[in-house]
Specification:
Keywords: Calcium, Cell outer membrane, Hydrolase, Lipid degradation, Lipid metabolism, Membrane, Metal-binding, Signal, Transmembrane, Transmembrane beta strand. The chain is mainly beta and 295 residues long. It is 9% helix and 50% strand.
Amino acid sequence: MKTKILILFIFAFQISHSQSIFGEDKVITKSMSERWELDDEDKNGTFKLTYYNPVYVLPTRWSNNPNELPQSENPENSFEDPENYNQIEAKFQLSLKTKLIQSFLFGHGDIWLGYTQLANWQVYNDPISRPFRELNYEPELIVNFPLNITLFGLDLRMAGFAFNHQSNGRDLPRSRSWNRLVFHAAFERDNFQMYLRPWIRIESSDKDDNPSIENYIGRLEATFIYNINKHSLLVIGKNAMDFDENRGSLEVNYLYSVKSNLRLHLQVFTGYGETLIDYNHKQTTIGLGVSFIDW
C-alpha cells in the first residue's frame, strides 16, 4: 500500500513538472472555465488527466485531540483498545479528473470521472512502526453543465450532480464508507470563486459502518477561493443543517507562491470528520507544507 501511494505521488509530481508550472516565476491561476472546460475555446477533448481537488503535502500536521479510540454507533466498527497515536503526523492529498464524454445532451453537458486520495501518516511514530493511520479513497462520476447567468452580482458558471463514493478500504473495526448523490453549483467573479455542494446520502442495504455520519460531517459543503497576486485563500465549510445539534467543520488554507504554483501551504481544520475514521470525532489540527498546483 505504501508503494502504491508513493507511485501516485511521483506520478502527480511528474505531471506537474511536465507542464512546467515550476519553471516560471509568474503565478498561474485558472478561471473556472479553464478548470472545467466550460466555454468552447477551453474545450480540451476527452480522456486527458487534469487536476481536481487540491494536491498538497503537509509533512507536519498537529492535532489537539488525536483519535486514539475510534468509535461508531455500530458496535462492530468501534475500537476496544486505544492506539498510541502521536499528535504530529504527515498528511497529503492527490486528486485527478478526466472527461469521459464531452458535449452530450444536445451539446450542453460533460461527464467527468474524478478521484481523490487523502492520507494521514504516523511517519514519526516509530514505536508502532510508522503506519498510515487513515487512507480515504473518493471516486466520483460527475455530470456538469456550463452556465452563464448573473445572480446577486456573481456569475453562475456551472451546475450539475455527482455520484460519490468514499471509503477507507479497511476491515473491521476500522471500516468506514458511504455513498452520496452530490449536487453542485459554482459561482465566479474576478478573483473569487464559490462552490456550493449539498448532498443526499444513499443508504446501503448492507450494514452501516458509520451510522448518522451526515449528522457529523454534514449535508452541505461551501467552498470559497480567492486569489490575489502570490496569495491564495481556500475556505471549506461543512454543516449538518441540523438546528438541534449544529455540527460540521471549517477548514482554512492559506498559500503563498514561492515559484509559480509551488506554494507554501498552511492548513487549519476544526470540527468533525477530517477523515472518515474521525467522522464523529471533534478536533483542531494545524498543518504546514507545500501545494503544487493552482485550484
